[in-house]
Write a structure and sequence with these properties.
By secondary structure, this protein is mainly alpha-helical. It has 18 helices and no strands. It has helices at 14-30, 43-46, 54-71, 76-91, 97-115, 120-133, 139-145, 151-170, 177-193, 197-210, 220-240, 245-259, 273-290, 293-296, 303-323, 335-341, 345-362, 367-378.
């Protein structure tokens, strides 16, 4: 179920604005890795390698219950402190999957009650903690909110997904590789159905976070799936409205991420580089076609469109270099830069189209991706 950007202003209530602010702060706070120290629980519980003992379970319940009461309360400072104290232990680098599951078992009934309360601030606070726990039992709660009428709560759903992926990148994952791939596919679907630009961008950020998971060879496929989904979603949103500033900004960010992606270098797992390079090439080809639509209509390109063309060209050559296809690309080196500097709109559009079709040929793209590239260059 999609939602349109042109919703009545009354939807953007004070509670919605507060929910968006909390979600944004949560994502930035969760990015810092935390060690085991002064976290309110003994080290042996946080680092428990297997299921918690009954005594450890009682200690966890004693820790979370008063915090959950504060989280559901009316005092903003108490809520903020409770949210952090619930999340801090599970964010520790040495927090085990068994410990996160124990925390989730103790806290989820109260968190579910908050999510079902209908209060935007309570739901957003609860969803941050759900995301930090990052266990399989949390996934249905994310799915529950993805099509909520309140865009702030849809952002909270995407932010919780981002936090889950960050947790799995920073500590022992509590989800299998298959469960992660399933969540990545759902995130892409939710983002594709979303027509509110801020929310779709939040899903893009969540997918990119999944691309940083490096937990051994069994999770290499997760990174591949994440970047394939990220590339597809970014170009799909841009295709919906090529001159939409938010979609352009999202595509620019994804292009930068692909350019400096470690999985495309020596740090990537065996077999990762080629499929991610193919995804990057497809992304570049579609962006090259879409970003010059205004140029083909004889109108001046705006700064972001020009930036998209130039960074897409860099992604194209980076992908071809990784895949060993550089010699197969058409000789467009310098032509895009020259067209930009000379303000030659026709040359920019023509060269971008040539490079897009060259990528399609060099990477032997077929099926839906080839059709999307053809559609982009033909618009």
């Amino acid at each position: 179920m999609g939602h349109t950007e042109s919703q009545p202003c009354s939807r953007w209530t004070r509670a919605t604005a507060a929910a968006l602010l909390i979600a944004s702060l949560a994502a930035s706070q969760a990015s810092a890795q935390i060690g085991v120290g002064n976290l309110g629980l003994p080290r042996e519980i946080i680092t428990a390698p297997v299921l918690l003992t009954p005594e450890q379970e009682r200690a966890v319940r004693a820790y979370v219950e008063p915090l959950l009461a504060d989280l559901a309360g009316d005092d903003p400072e108490d809520r903020s402190q409770a949210r952090e104290r619930l999340s801090d232990p599970v964010r520790a680098e040495s927090a085990t999957a068994a410990f996160r599951q124990g925390m989730a078992d103790a806290a989820l009934p109260a968190l579910i009650a908050m999510i079902e309360s209908g209060d935007a601030v309570a739901i957003t606070n609860a969803m941050q903690v759900v995301g930090d726990f990052a266990v399989a039992d949390c996934v249905p709660l994310i799915e529950r909110l993805h099509d909520n009428p309140n865009p702030g709560l849809r952002v909270a759903s995407a932010r919780a997904t981002l936090l889950m992926f960050e947790a799995m990148a920073n500590a022992a994952p509590a989800l299998s590789a298959q469960q992660m791939r399933d969540l990545i596919r759902k995130a892409e679907q939710f983002g594709a159905a979303e027509t509110h630009t801020h929310v779709s961008d939040a899903w893009l950020r969540a997918l990119a976070a999944a691309g940083s998971i490096r937990q051994g060879p069994e999770y290499d496929s997760v990174v591949i799936e994440a970047w394939q989904s990220t590339a597809r979603l970014a170009t799909a949103k841009l295709a919906e409205d090529p001159i939409n500033e938010r979609y352009q900004q999202s595509a620019l960010r994804v292009a930068d991420e692909l350019l400096f992606l470690k999985a495309l270098g020596d740090e990537g797992g065996p077999g990762q580089a080629r499929p991610i390079a193919e995804a990057a090439a497809g992304f570049a080809a579609e962006v090259l076609g879409l970003a010059t639509i205004a140029a083909r209509d004889g109108e001046a390109l705006d700064e972001k469109s020009v930036g998209l063309v130039r960074v897409a060209e860099r992604v194209a050559w980076r992908a071809a270099e990784v895949a060993g296809n550089s010699d197969s690309l058409p000789g467009t080196s310098g032509r895009i830069a020259g067209a930009v500097e000379g303000n030659d709109i026709g040359e920019l559009a023509t060269t971008s189209r040539i490079l897009a079709l060259g990528l399609k040929s060099a990477f032997n793209m077929r099926g839906e991706q080839a059709e999307r590239i053809d559609a982009a260059v033909a618009r």
